[in-house]
Every structure is written in C-alpha cells, then in structure tokens.
Q: What sequence folds into this?
C-alpha cells in the first residue's frame, strides 16, 4: 500500500528533505498535495516532478503564475491560506506532514485531525500555541501525532513498547547553538549573520535564530509536555554539542533510554512518514571513531533567558505559551530585519508575557485572538525600540 502524503510547506527545509526521502522510496510513498507560501517557482518545479493532484500557493497574487505553469498536468491549483484547510481533508490523503513555519500551522492541523488524518508534525508551534486543544482532539479522533522534530522523534522511539510504563523524566538535548558558552555581554553584540550559522544542523532561518537563542529548545520543552503528557518539572534540558544523542527518557526504575544518530533530519522525517515501520535507508551511519567523546553540560538559562520563559509559560498554562510564541515570531522577524538586537528579543518576549491578557481556559477563538493581539503589542514594542 502506497502512502499518499500532503506536504504543507514543501519548499522549506523540512519539505524539501521530505521529498528527498520520498524519492528514495517510490514504492512506499506518493506525493498527493504540495503547498508553499511564497516560493512559486520551486513549487512549480516540484509539482512538475512529483505530479501531486493538488497544489496550494499561499500568496494569492501568484495564483495565475502557478496555474498557467501547471496547465495540462491535471493538477488542481488553489491559492490562499484558507485552501490549506481544504486540501488536508481530501479523501486521497493518507498522512499530512505539517512543515510550515510558525502559527500558520494551527488551523490546517486542526482540520486534518478532524478529518482523521495522521499528522507527521514538523510544525512545533502548533502544539506550543494550542496543545491543550490539539492533543485531546487527536485522542478523540484516534489520530496519531507523529513527531518529526528530532528530539521528540527520539523520545517517541524510546517510548515504543513502554506505553504501560510511566515516564519519570524526559531529558531533551540541545546543541547549544552558535553562542554556547557566551556571556550576557558577548550575547548583546552578536550579529544576524553569526546567529544564522548553526554548528550542526542546516535549517530554515526562523528555527536557526530560535536555536541560537535557545527559544527553539524552549518551544520543544512545551511541545514535549503536550506530546508525552508530562509536567514542566519532569523535563530537563541538557546541552550536548555533538547532537548525536537526540534525547532521552528516564523511567521510574531509574533506567534511561536514548536514541542516537547523526544529525540529519531525513531520519526523523522518514521515521514519521513510515511509522510504524523502519524503512531501510542508505543515510550515513554513526561511527564512534569520529566521535571519541560525547559531552553533556548544563543549559545556561540566566544568559539564554528565552528557555526560562518557556518553562514559565508552560507552568502558567492557559494562553501564555501562545503569547510567548506570537511575541517570538515578531521578535525573530524584527531581528532578521536588523530592527532589534539579539538580547532585545528576550526583552520583547518578557514585555508581552507581562502585559498580555492571560486566559486560563482559552478556546480556539481565544488562541486566534491572543495571537493577533500579541503580534500587535510586539510590533508596537519593536517600533518604539527600533535601533535603526
Ligand atoms: Mg529539534
């Protein structure tokens, strides 16, 4: 049986690597839907190569361009973010890979779960923003959420065969990013170009900045809490610069399981798409002779404040993580435009967490409203504090 896949965000880092995985296994996987926000040219060339039955271009001004380029190929072309909510429900889709960036993943993911589609989740922001809605909905619909994030894939793999055993603790590994070991003063002066240089992983711009600030690890803490139903106090972050041990689970007898591998996103992508089967691959293998020592050190939450904010947001619950996420999306955007400095991103997050309206039991509409209001608040802060 061929698995027919909808890839939301096919032109991004995860999307293009997913297509490489699919290329290797034409007898197992077929591309059914491809979607992109802006990159029409790449979407067109992907559609010509993979012949999905539907494509979506988010930017509606590019609809004619895509439509004309694909005419005669028997591909239905849609435009606009709303279309994502339709294509994920198609009968011909067996699994949805959510590889789009940020909050934009929330509504299509909700629709896909409501339609009973298994989710290969690469969009961690969906769970960060609204894990309290997504996880119960997935449970109700009997839909598996298969994590693509390497750390969460590792934890998921450690938990296979352990469903009857409670988790004592999850240990999330972090590479530490390009600024590992930096002091507060050093961090204050880092540039956009430095922040975009990750030592181990090749990823999109947003997640690379989040990795440099340890916000990515903070978002992953929240993601892990929802995926594996654990409290903030049961999650520990450990810096592991080699990025070989992808994460660990400690059980109540004190035993710890870990999953290891080279830092290559194709492995967790393939695992999620192929689940429950491990598909034979020719990915490069780990060789201990190239890694004579694997090291671990404590994460520095005083210097990298965003990680501390994430634990705080998780503890507070309600819509606080939604506030944190929206503020962070604006902060990263402003930093990439060089409107604010690196540590100012943390000041902005703190501002929004303090001044945002806290709701203990938000509905989906509340999350949408919180996201909108926080973005406005954050944008105002950027305008006032713009260093240009
Ligand atoms: Mg990760």
A:
């Amino acid at each position: 049986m061929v698995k027919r896949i909808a890839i939301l965000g096919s032109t991004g880092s995860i999307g293009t690597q997913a297509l490489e995985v699919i290329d290797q296994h034409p007898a197992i996987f077929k591309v059914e839907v491809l979607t992109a926000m802006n990159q029409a040219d790449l979407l067109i060339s992907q559609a010509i190569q993979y012949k999905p039955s539907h494509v979506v271009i988010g930017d509606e001004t590019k609809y004619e361009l895509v439509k004309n380029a694909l005419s005669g190929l028997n591909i239905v072309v849609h435009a606009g973010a709303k279309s994502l909510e339709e294509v994920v429900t198609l009968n011909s889709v067996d699994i949805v890979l959510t590889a789009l960036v940020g909050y934009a993943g929330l509504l299509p993911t909700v629709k896909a779960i409501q339609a009973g589609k298994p989710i290969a989740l690469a969009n961690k922001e969906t769970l960060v923003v609204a894990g309290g809605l997504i996880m119960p909905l997935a449970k109700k619909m009997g839909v598996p959420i298969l994590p693509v994030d390497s750390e969460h894939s590792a934890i998921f793999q450690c938990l296979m065969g352990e469903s009857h055993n409670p988790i004592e603790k999850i240990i999330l590994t972090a590479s530490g990013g390009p600024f590992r070991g930096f002091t507060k003063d050093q961090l204050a002066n880092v540039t956009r170009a430095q922040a975009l240089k990750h030592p181990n992983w090749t990823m999109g711009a947003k997640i690379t900045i989040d990795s440099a600030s340890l916000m990515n690890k903070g978002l992953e803490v929240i993601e892990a809490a929802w995926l594996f139903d654990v409290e903030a106090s049961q999650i520990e972050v450990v810096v592991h610069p080699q990025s070989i041990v992808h994460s660990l689970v400690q059980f109540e007898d004190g035993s710890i399981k870990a999953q290891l591998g080279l830092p290559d996103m194709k492995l967790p992508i393939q695992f999620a798409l192929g689940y429950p089967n491990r598909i034979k691959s020719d990915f490069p293998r780990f060789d201990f002779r190239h890694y004579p020592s694997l090291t671990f050190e404590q994460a520095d939450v005083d210097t990298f404040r965003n990680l501390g904010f994430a634990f705080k947001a998780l503890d507070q619950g309600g819509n606080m993580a939604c506030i944190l996420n929206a503020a962070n999306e604006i902060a990263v955007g402003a930093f990439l435009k060089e409107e604010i400095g690196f540590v100012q991103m943390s000041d902005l997050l703190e501002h929004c967490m303090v001044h945002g309206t806290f709701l203990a039991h938000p509905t989906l509409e509340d999350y949408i409203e919180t996201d909108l209001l926080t973005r406005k608040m954050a944008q105002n802060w950027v305008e006032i504090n713009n260093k240009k």
